[in-house]
Design a protein that fits this description.
Number of domains: 2
Helix content: 40-55%
Low-confidence stretches: 1-27
Largest sheet: 5 strands, mixed
CATH class of the largest domain: Alpha Beta
Mean pLDDT: 91
Strand order of the largest sheet: 10-9-11-8-12
Shape: globular
Oligomer: single chain
CATH superfamily of the largest domain: Periplasmic binding protein-like II
CATH architecture of the largest domain: 3-Layer(aba) Sandwich
Length: 343
């Protein structure tokens, strides 16, 4: 009997050790956060000259929704939103730069797709902008619908979901087109303005961003059709789930803050005085949610104080380029922005 009990106990102990070993193997991996802290700054990849998302202002400071997404992550890690270096990149450069470790994360009008997660070793941490692909034409063309583009030349960037969607749309609608494929965003926009192509296709937000920077924005027309779903958001390398958690929950914390009425103007007061249990947990008054990710418990206070909640980011960066909040409203307001419970 004793022998049987000893054997059972031994098997149980071995099982526990095996599970522990598996858990250790699952958590082992690169320490991106450690590397960021040792370096003293987050390196974040952003788009080149994308008004509303990532565009240097007159003082050379990067401004935009994606730039602020990077700043929020820096605030979570360091408590200081200024500890970030921005590396602008093209659609062709972006994934190799992330895969090679040249940048820590990517926040640059990048569409979340299955293939990018299953084939490129990347993980999307959330959606900071719901978008869709559209077309822009010159008003003098007389074109008012994408269905009138049969036989048109269309400017498009290579290596993007945009290029695939364009081909699918014309094939589905039995229409012909001639692509003008140019990698550099400034060159492709110049080609469109100069008349090398009849239409320019990209995410509708990117088209609106481009139009907003023109001397005569009313010379250009965004056609009404959206031909795809383009959920855009921050991307990290697979394998370092600690860093993934920080990037993901930073975005969710900003959305949750807007839901709860926590803003850059009142976050300090609410952190001291609020009796709302959800706000207390969000701002680190109760629980150890920050410590569970390896950051300070008041990480959200630092994010909101320095960068703002999601609504503040949108109002500051996207509203001025003429894009209504639309589907990017909070879920309770008829939109799709929704944060899982922070508890």
């Amino acid at each position: 009997m004793t022998s049987i009990r000893a054997r059972v106990a031994g098997l149980a102990a071995a099982a526990v050790m095996a599970v522990a070993g598996q858990a250790s193997a699952q958590t082992a991996g690169p320490d991106t956060v450690g590397a960021i802290r040792a370096r003293g700054q987050l390196i974040c990849g952003v788009a080149i000259n994308s008004a509303g998302f990532a565009l240097p202002d007159s003082r050379g400071e990067m401004r935009g929704l994606d730039a602020d997404t990077c700043r929020a992550v820096a605030a979570a890690i360091f408590g200081d939103a200024t500890k970030v270096r921005f590396l602008p990149n093209t659609t062709v450069q972006r994934f190799p730069m992330l895969q090679s470790g040249e940048i820590d994360m990517l926040a640059r009008n990048t569409t979340w797709t299955m293939a990018r997660e299953t084939q490129l070793g990347l993980a999307f941490a959330g959606i900071n902008f719901y978008d869709g692909q559209g077309f822009m034409v010159r008003k003098t063309s007389g074109v008012t619908s994408a269905r009138q583009l049969d036989g048109a030349t269309v400017c498009v960037q290579p290596g993007t979901t945009t290029e695939l969607n364009l081909t699918d749309y014309f094939r589905t609608n039995n229409m012909r087109f001639t692509p003008v494929v140019i990698e550099n965003v400034e060159e492709i926009r110049s080609a469109f303005i100069s008349g090398r192509c009849d239409a320019y296709t990209n995410d509708a937000s990117s088209l609106a961003s481009f139009r907003a920077t023109q001397q005569n924005p009313d010379d250009f027309l965004l056609l009404p059709e959206l031909i795809s779903k383009e959920p855009l958001g921050p991307v990290v390398r697979k394998g370092d789930w600690r860093f993934f958690d920080i990037v993901r929950w930073t975005l969710f914390a900003q959305i949750a803050a807007e839901e709860l009425g926590v803003t850059s103007a009142n976050v300090e007061e609410l952190a001291r005085t609020s009796t709302n249990p959800d706000i207390q947990r969000l701002l680190g008054r109760t629980g150890d949610l920050g410590q569970s990710m390896g950051v300070a418990n008041d990480w959200v206070v630092k994010i909101i104080r320095q960068v703002g909640n999601y609504g503040e980011m949108y109002e500051r960066n996207i509203t001025p380029i003429g894009i209504p909040r639309g589907v990017n409203r909070l879920w309770r307001d008829g939109g799709q922005q929704y944060a899982p419970p922070i508890r």
